[in-house]
Amino acid sequence: MAIKPFLVCILPGRIQMITSKYSRYCLITLTTLAITACGGEANQTSAPAEIVRPVKLVNISAAQGTEITRFPAVVSASQSSELSFQVGGLLQEFPIKEAQTIQRGELIAKLDPRDFQSVLDAAKAQFNSANTEYQRAERLAKEDAIASSVLEQRKTQLDIAKSQLDQAEKALDDSVLTAPFNGVIAQKHASKRQTISPGQDIVKLINVDLLEAQIDLPASFIANIPKDEASNDQRRAYIMLDSAPDQMIEATFKEASLLADTSSQTYEITFEFTPPSNLLVLPGMNATVEIQTSSTGDNARVAIPMSAVTGNDEEKFVWVVDKSTMLVSKRAVALENGVGETLIVTDGLSQDDTIVAAGAAYLSEGLKVREWK
């Protein structure tokens, strides 16, 4: 039998002679491995997947006419009073405690009444004597038994005695201190058996049924408030305590200072509110006042979140989303000067636009996005 062509394969340590039958098998195997390797390299160099960035969107028509501004505030009592005696003496009774709720007319403190009672008794005796002398002089004057000047003298003595009696009665009344309104004892400034001077503060009484919150409103914010009452602007105010930020308490405007602070150029605005029954609200607590402004009709304005605006001092822009392709494009906008979490757009947006409300800093022209909820 003739010897067929053969392929010499060099292996470690020896040489083997393989017939053409096995040569074809080796060739097929090597070819398969080469094709597989090339296919792997092709897969590694394929085009990268399209990037779709999740963002929060806002519809301009939905945001139209709503402006929200927030300012830090401090809670205070709408009614508070430092109570004191108009007379001095020894503090005999002092039954109240700090943080105690007290009703109008309820006893707060009482001085030792003995000295006041003695003065009152003496004033009563003097008045009775002066009154008797005057009555006698009046009878004698009708009989022309005394001169008219004597009657006038008795009348003067009676008036003086009556004045002293009134003062003694008032002093005794003033030795008892009662609550002028319903409230809470915020602080005690004296202690029992202490000698008290007239006008010395004894307690601080506050009314917690109606509280206040003061904010400092920038002049720039006030300047942007429309003067025309026919603009139909509607403003509502809410109080949010730092200790309970999720609960909004409706507040009403009380008063405003018309003189700006010279250093900060702000005006102090005061709001009143009734604390809810499920919250303990005390003066001195930190809070936030949220002012919501809405407009209707032709005067409605477009408000967008501050987070939607990017740019610098010279140019501001937003990212507008094409709802059919979900591609973003940059658009310049003109804004009103203001403060708060929303800004008023005066030019650059229309009512049908959809813009990126959050995530604008990571976008580029023509990037595809999807709404993140």
Automatic annotation (TrEMBL):
The keyword Ubl conjugation does not apply. InterPro entries: MdtA-like_BSH, MdtA-like_C, RND_pump_MFP. Its main location: other. It comes from the Bacteria. GO terms for molecular function: efflux transmembrane transporter activity. Residues 120-171 form a coiled coil. Keywords: Coiled coil, Transport. It is found in: Cell envelope. Residues 82-201 form the Multidrug resistance protein MdtA-like barrel-sandwich hybrid domain. Residues 302-360 form the Multidrug resistance protein MdtA-like C-terminal permuted SH3 domain. One of its GO terms (cellular component) is efflux pump complex. Belongs to the membrane fusion protein (MFP) (TC 8.A.1) family. This is Efflux RND transporter periplasmic adaptor subunit. It comes from Halioxenophilus aromaticivorans.
